[in-house]
């Protein structure tokens, strides 16, 4: 199976290129997270009205990250960015208890979109350093993650993006999920290649002189 996979994989570029959509309510920390991943340091940001677009290199993956504004009047425009998206990063302000239901509703709308079906979802539970921040378990419950996300690959990661805490761990998971998704896509091709190899071996076995002689003898006996 390994040789078949390598043969198929050779038709694909070794460096994966993936479009990643960064969404979440306003002031959750999306833009800060993007530039910490890009530059390794915190930069001064302003509320995003449209979008920020950056390329982030992580391991063997080139992520084209779209950070889209999260104000309530901008959220209906999110759907225009869904096409060709390979993964979603949803950033939540763990300290914003008043709007956690809003965040849950927006996340549910996102995962129900046909264009994002079966795409891995990374939830960054940001601002975990604040005293009133919801824990990971509390956020998992408040966001109803087990209910609304279902069987797709997803992960919730505690982060403090202003201190570059938790981001690497979150994107480590995302990179693994993207590789696994590609493996799922390739599996039917691998199985087809394996079946072809078995068929080839069977044909070669039949064509061996001793086997062919035996088969012909049986044929002419009838």
Broad structural category: alpha/beta
Approximate helicity band: 40-55%
CATH superfamily: P-loop containing nucleotide triphosphate hydrolases
At CATH's second level, what is the architecture? 3-Layer(aba) Sandwich
CATH topology: the name is Rossmann fold
Describe the structure concisely for a colleague.
This protein is α/β, with parallel strands linked by helices and 222 residues long.
Provide an overview of this structure.
With 222 residues, the chain is an alpha/beta fold. It has one domain (13-181): P-loop containing nucleotide triphosphate hydrolases (Rossmann fold). It has helices spanning 2-9, 30-39, 100-111, 136-142, 145-148, 167-207, 209-221; strands at 16-23, 51-58, 61-68, 87-93, 121-126, 154-158. The chain has a six-stranded mixed sheet, sandwiched between helices. Helix 3 links the parallel strand 4 (87-93) and strand 5 (121-126). Helix 1 (2-9) crosses helix 6. The radius of gyration is 24 Å and the shape is elongated. Residues 1-12 have low confidence and may be disordered.
Task: Spell out the blueprint of helices and strands.
Blueprint: H1 2-9, E1 16-23, H2 30-39, E2 51-58, E3 61-68, E4 87-93, H3 100-111, E5 121-126, H4 136-142, H5 145-148, E6 154-158, H6 167-207, H7 209-221
Parallel strand pairs: 1-3, 1-4, 4-5, 5-6
Antiparallel strand pairs: 2-3
């Amino acid at each position: 199976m390994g040789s078949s996979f390598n043969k198929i994989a050779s038709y694909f570029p070794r460096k994966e290129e993936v479009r990643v959509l960064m969404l979440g309510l306003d002031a959750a920390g999306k833009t800060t997270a993007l530039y910490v991943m890009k530059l390794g340091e915190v930069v001064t940001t302003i509320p995003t009205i449209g979008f920020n677009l950056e390329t982030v290199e992580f391991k063997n993956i080139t992520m084209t990250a779209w950070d889209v504004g999260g104000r309530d009047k901008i959220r209906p425009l999110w759907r225009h960015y869904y096409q060709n998206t390979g993964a979603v990063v949803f950033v939540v302000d763990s300290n914003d208890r008043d709007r956690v239901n809003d965040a849950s509703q927006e996340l549910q709308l996102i995962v129900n979109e046909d264009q994002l079906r079966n795409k891995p979802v990374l939830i960054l539970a940001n601002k975990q350093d604040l005293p009133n921040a919801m824990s990971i378990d509390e956020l998992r419950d408040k966001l109803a993650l087990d209910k609304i996300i279902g069987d797709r690959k997803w992960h919730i990661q505690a982060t403090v993006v202003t201190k570059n805490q938790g981001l690497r761990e979150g994107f480590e998971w995302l990179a693994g999920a993207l590789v696994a998704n590609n493996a799922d896509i390739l599996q039917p091709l691998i199985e087809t290649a394996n079946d072809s190899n078995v068929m080839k071996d069977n044909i070669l076995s039949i064509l061996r002189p001793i086997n062919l002689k035996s088969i012909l003898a049986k044929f002419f006996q009838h």
